[in-house]
Amino acid sequence: MHIILILFAMYSPRFSPMVLTRPLTPALQPLYQEFDLEPVDVLHYDLSIDIDRVTETIDATTEVTLVPTENNLTDFKLYLKSLTVSHVTGASSFSQAGDSLFITLPTPASTSDTIQLVIDYSGTPPSESWGGFHFHPYVTYHMGVGFVSDPSMGKYMFPCHDRPSDKASFDFHITVPDTLYAVANGDSAGVTDNMDGTLTYHWTLDQPMSTYLAAISVADYTVLHDSTDSRIYYYVYSWDVDDALGSFANVDLMLAQFESVYSSYPWDCKFSYVQTPTGDMEHLSQVYHIASAINGSTYYDWLLAHEMSHMWWGNCVTERYWTDVWLSESFATYSEAIWMESYGEIEYLDYVVNNIMKPYLNSGELFPIVGAETPAELWSNTTYEKGASVLHMLRQIMGDTAFFAGYDTYFDHHKYTIAHTVDFIDHMEGQYGELDWFFDPWVYGEGYPIYDITSSWVQQGSQWQLTVNIGQMQTVSNFFTMPVEFLVEGTASDSLITFFNDVPDQEEIFLLPFEPVSVEFDPGSKILSTAVLGVEEQTYPPIGGVGTMYLGPNPASENCTINWLGTGDMFLNVCIYDLSGRIVQSRTLEPSMRTLDLSGIPAGTYLVDAVATGNVRQTARLVIL
Ligand SMILES: [Zn+2]
Questions:
Q1: 133, burial (CB in 10 Å: exposed 0-12, middle 13-18, buried 19+)
Q2: From ligand 1's centre to the CA of 510, what distance in Å?
Q3: Which domains are delineated in the chain?
């Protein structure tokens, strides 16, 4: 099933690099007040919500069934935002302040007690630009995650222990005008006609779900049932049915791909997409898919795949802290490539290079995957694309068998509960052995390697001696120990050489039975990196091929010209980076115009990264005077 060619055997570095401290509790506490758990474990939420679209209010009751996690419990709090509680059955008293609902029990409770609270509340449910509870002209819907304040937004709809780690089963009873349809997590448990112009839709989910994944959506939905896979439904605006049939054409294949690579769909209920004005969001069993993406084409398959894969990664194995959110988002982003792999290994690698690695390298972001300090760092190219690149690289190092065995044991041990980053590392090391040298720089460190590579060759009797020098130039991050590959091409044959780059300024010597013509670094795109290739020792391939790019003059002052044989009739997309990885200029050069205007760029050493039509890429070092 996993068809990427494995070129590495089991490697281990010659020495273990310095081991960084792995924070189990990352440093985001002041930002998101999520680290404190209340001394309760919620077992079940039963929501009854009456929606008034005219006044844009809800009138609701939530029954919360919970057990104390410590003895002599009398006081604890749940979370509820901007909604007013009128009564709590099961409490001797309650009060609200900010987002907290403080509960006092009539008698102290122990860990063997089960407590049931019935909480009546009403008001205008709040929203942010993306997350929260929205009254839209066509749709009333709740989004469980936000990007501005606390990402856990269960509290925007119902009183809850709004922490990703406290999972519970759910029932939803949603009362709406009888012209509308209400969908929620889980499976339908029937519809009641209230004989007053309203219907109450009952949805039930038996398995445990985090509060940020609970959601309801109400609209004039047409319910479509996938013709191939009876578990799959689509809830789409009645006027978009034809477009939906086109846009969801591959969903059954997608589910089959993930069931083949990961595990059977882990939920006993439906899987569905729900058309909503904004999206996309992986609410359990009902992904919210942005309305504009339902346009009849399969262009947004990558997005459908990303959200579907969250049913495993994030929804079933859930990060304990939001600072470990890469355990959801990197896995989902990498799942986009896993979906593309169902078309073939070329499609997989093309997707990894152009849709995962490149967006990260172009972002200029240089902070660690674990340990974000701001919301912008948490929901970033680093979390999504760098993290997905880490999974791609890890798979190249481990090989498919060990990599997916590690995925399997990690999933099996943590499904329906929570995980930390160290749990994932432990399971991958269980299949491979020591991986500190990989995870420490890539997950807990900053940035990526910028390689400085030169190669030269001399004839030795009937053979050729090739010398490769490799250094790392990044200034903001630590050393990256990695296996590296070079494709040495001759006129009649070629050879792939590999070694472990585990010391700075490393020199390796190889004997070849043919005369090299060119040396290409990382031909399989196995490393998230940029490389500066020394030019003076290189020999150009014949015109018509794609060879090494060089810049002239170099050093340059006001402008320089890109010379890259074989690309004379192609557009070049060119980025100039400084050595910390930040973009200082980005432009497209027409075939007739190959001169870079350097005015305004401070003196210093830069990297010029150019991509020609067909996504052939070269990078060269440029000194600006
Ligand atoms: Zn996602």
A1: buried
A2: 44
A3: 36-217 (2.60.40.1730), 220-253+263-318 (3.30.2010.30), 321-444 (1.10.390.10), 448-539 (2.60.40.1840), 546-625 (2.60.40.3080)
